[in-house]
Design goal:
By secondary structure, the chain is α/β, with parallel strands linked by helices. The protein is built from 24 helices and 19 strands.
Length: 763
Amino acid sequence: MTEPSGETAPEAAQPTEDPQEETPEAQTRTEAPGTPEAPAAPGEPDATEEPRATEEPDAGEGPGAGEEPDAGEESEATEEPEAGEEPGSAGADVAASESGAGGTPELSEAQAELAAQRELRARIEARKADKGGTVSSGAKLSGTAADLLAAVRAVEGGAASGSAFYEAPEPAPRRPAPEAVPAATVRPPAPERAAAPTAGTTAAVREVLARGGAPEALAGRVAAALGENAAAALSEDPWQLLAVSGVRPEQADGFARALLGAACGPDDPRRTVALTVWLLERAALQGHTALEIQAVRAGLAGHAVPDPEQAVETAVSEGAVLVFQEEETAEPESDEDADPSEEPSRPAAEEPASPVLLGLDRYALAEESLADGLARLVKTATADTWEGPELERAAGAHGLVLHTGGEASRAEPVALAEAAAARGLRVLVAVHSDAGQHALGAAGAAAVTVGGLLAGTAGPGRDEDGAFALDLLVVLDAPQLDVETAAMLVESLPDGCRLVLSGDPEVLGAPGAGRVFADALAARVCPRVASRLPDPGPLGELVSGIGVGELNQVEAPGKEVVIVPVRDAGEAVHRTVQLVADSVPRAIGVPPEQTQVVTVGHGGSAGTRALNAALKQRLNPGPGRFGGYDPGDRVAYAPVPGRTVTGTVLSADAEGLRLRRGDEEVHVPKERVEATLRHGWALTAHQAAGTRWPAVVVVLPGDAAGGLSRPWVYTAFGRAERHLSVVHGVDQALARAVAEGVAPERTTRLRPLLEGLLATPEE
């Protein structure tokens, strides 16, 4: 399982709660986090106020005209993912082209990144296609698992379809070390735009959808997901509708019944295979790269599949999913350490086997390629003696180094990059977000985004083998790397290149599938350097305490931390608007455009939808005449699934919307607006991860208690640079979440793969 997630990887959906009627002229006061009491009645003095409690920045107490959210809005764990959080099923729904900044015919960074990713993935698959052999996983299967493996072998032997899914993940061939540094690196030509579905294909799909009673508006997305033969494929197998993001199994079932009538049933093999794939795709949205076979069977049973075991076997035999069982890497206990009074341990053959996992080939390929690439860097780096701090010495002696620490520690890998450049090495610093790039640029350190580096729009370019011309790559915000992005990044590094991954292990994980940084740390196959630089000030003290499970009251003489108790979700929305529009600008000096609201989920009475509606009404009222947006609206833009940036609407025309994102202008085509844009005054913590703002307002209504965890609180509170306001309505749930709320781990395969490739006998 993964962190609580609202609609994609991270955010937990909030339970529905009817907000109570807001009390007029409610008195607000502030307390230490985790120990709120009910606000005093209007005009009633508070005799129990903590002497060190920080007052709300604005002295005004009367509620303004903040709009109450719709009490009937529901928040479901299965609602459609919001823009910017869904990693996507197979990249098909993001293949539509976008115009570059300024309306020029050149590709945007997002388009170039997607095309570069497809090119790299195709090259990796082509390498593996040249290899022979079978998948080594599963050597210790027995019982039902052995039956599944037999199905795999049947596919490999040609007795069933889908053999292309089962080729061996052998290590990629080593690139020979270049004899001399080339005088100039070669950038690949701009990738071609992805071909949009033809009008005929879309029309044919629209006709099939109409026959099945499905919304015809889905025609473009279905055609993009299923290709030129989408209409025929959908007519033959209506459950392929599940390949379209947002379509639910019950909707696909209704569509299938309308098309097939009595010819379909709950045990139809087409249905069970599609559901198996859908369950694994949904798990990927929550960060898993694989699922235990029991979890898949339980999910199938929950969707009325009569024989889940047979359904899984069918999905495996048809090549729709892969089956894995990793080899155990733990060393058996030595006889000299054993207690003679205890019974002898069972033979190794009787030890409990590692769980049987099911996964999709795209994530299996990514994890195996990433593990092999990291092992290649470790084994091909030439050890050297570098004088300097611990991080610098470790980077000189090893090909892979992991660096951990908070915000203040980011200076250490940047200093490492500067020292390596002074040694004459080709060095690059990469960050996860545009905001991180701008922050480093303001501090005098050059950096590129990971997306820009992979897309070829930034960085040193590639040599003839497709490798970056680098000797050292430093990646900040490493916990935000999903497994597919990390695999493409590592695959692009030449032999002998050093890689330093740096980040805060306490923050929420990547919005995409995988937990690359956490798995690499847990594998213990390379040096791990922990920073000793503390984050400064009251905010640093508060966030550092949360990281170790303590919610401390901190002295905040400059109103760096303010707690605003609320009774219900309606009051939470009102107080949030008041803080952003009035209190923080007046008392702290941070304007609304530099203040970010962070909440637990998208739905509910105080989720991002309700908060954005109220904030728009106050900060930029308008009819939303351009697809729900007006010039001046703040938006969350997802140029590719899983990566969210904030921007401002500049204008609109018949072709789409024009945004200002940082220092550049971006054109969003009309057909992409609904899929990639949301109002962005309020974000979820996962959308906000990797970016910081001068002021942050964290909203915790009473119905958000179930979505809180220590990583969530740590991430949300840590987004603030100068000021943090906490709209607090969860009573003691906040303190409990910090002390006990460890987010569930994601199911991945990278750690055992790394251990198998790099673990030494003494480890």
